[in-house]
Design a protein that fits this description.
By secondary structure, the chain is of the alpha+beta class. It has one domain. The protein has 3 helices and 5 strands; from the N terminus they run αβββαββα. The protein has helices spanning 5-15, 48-56, 72-77; strands at residues 19-24, 30-36, 42-43, 60-61, 69-70. The strands form 2 sheets. It has a 3-stranded antiparallel sheet with strand order 1-2-3. Strands 4-5 form a two-stranded antiparallel ribbon. α1 (5-15) packs across α2. It is globular and about 40 Å long.
Length: 85
């Protein structure tokens, strides 16, 4: 499956233990998102458009109102990358 470069970066960070925190508006829809790496840094590649595409493809999911994390399908879809530490 074709995944863009930005989607690939976000999925890779989520697969390593990151999470996407979100805020809901008055109408109940998600209005603001922030992607955190496992070290607590903010990933700026995670925009609302990337978030919605990952959610639509079911590569990320939220359980019981917790932050969004990579689903099993998302982990399988991400390509292996060297971890730059």
């Amino acid at each position: 499956m074709n995944i863009s470069k930005h989607e690939q970066r976000v999925l890779h960070e989520l697969a390593l233990g990151g999470a996407i925190h979100y805020d809901r508006g008055e109408n109940g829809k998600i209005r603001d998102i922030t992607c955190y790496t496992r070290n607590g840094h903010v990933l700026i590649d995670c925009t609302m458009a990337v978030f919605l595409r990952l959610k639509k493809r079911r590569f990320i999911r939220s359980v019981n109102g917790r932050p969004y994390r990579a689903s099993h399908a998302g982990i399988k879809a991400v390509r292996a990358q060297l971890n730059q530490r």
